[in-house]
Specification:
Strand content: 25-35%
Helix content: 25-40%
Radius of gyration: 19 Å
Order of helices and strands: EHHEEHEHEEEHEHEHEEHH
Largest sheet: 6 strands, mixed
Distance between the termini: 34 Å
Oligomer: single chain
Length: 211
């Protein structure tokens, strides 16, 4: 049996059709997505439903053999996992955004609100800017409105939420999609099973056009 960690939310919804094409049948997808643990119909695969930020952690420490995680999470946390496959779905971007009309955010001591603290620090450092990073867990778009921050670093798919809050994208830090990752030890122990599934998924996702 392979234990697979899935990211709760939109990434899991996009994972189900791909897994089905790979021959992994789940009796009731809607009901399964509400559980923390469920199995496929053959009991060959055990699934864990986990917060996106925790998927690489579960995989790194062996609670799951493999997992489906966003590249954004992997860039932020730098967990020690083996990246097996670019799955090509779950597209989004990590961007810098500021109030409309403000473009000069690369100045000393600029205040940046984000939950991607490590990514933001690395990015501004690469631009030669010492930024004050303010960690927030939600409603990041409000920070410039309330004068808590000058700009934000946030993950966007369409950018609509930013626009609705009077912000516009300044730069794209990186593009992110879902990745198949594996525990480094289990990759050796369960190599045939993991690689067989990876090859099936590779054939399927190679046809996906990234938006």
């Amino acid at each position: 049996m392979l234990t697979i960690a899935l990211s709760k939310g939109y990434l899991m919804k996009e994972s189900f059709p791909v897994l089905a094409q790979a021959g992994i049948k789940i009796a009731d997808v809607e009901q399964a997505s509400r559980k923390l643990v469920f199995f496929d119909t053959t009991k060959q695969f055990k699934f864990l439903v986990i917060r996106p930020t925790d998927v690489p952690v579960y995989v790194e420490h062996g609670a799951a053999d493999i997992g489906i995680a966003g590249k954004d999470i992997m860039e932020e946390n730098k967990d020690s996992v083996a990246e097996l496959l670019h799955l090509r779905f779950g597209y989004c971007r990590l961007v810098t955004a500021a109030p409309k009309g403000v473009r000069d955010i690369y100045k000393p001591n600029v205040r940046i609100a984000t939950k991607f603290v490590n990514c933001a620090e690395r990015y501004f450092a690469s631009r030669g800017v010492k930024a004050e990073i303010i960690k927030l867990y939600g409603s990041i778009e409000l920070a410039p409105q309330l004068n808590l921050a000058d700009a934000v670093v946030d993950l966007v798919a369409t950018g609509t939420t930013l626009k609705e809050n009077g912000l516009e994208i300044v730069d794209t830090i990186f593009h992110s999609t879902a990745r198949l990752v594996a525990n480094k030890i289990q990759l050796r122990v369960k190599y045939p099973e993991i690689i067989a599934l990876t090859k099936k998924l590779q054939k399927i996702v190679s046809k996906i056009r990234i938006k």
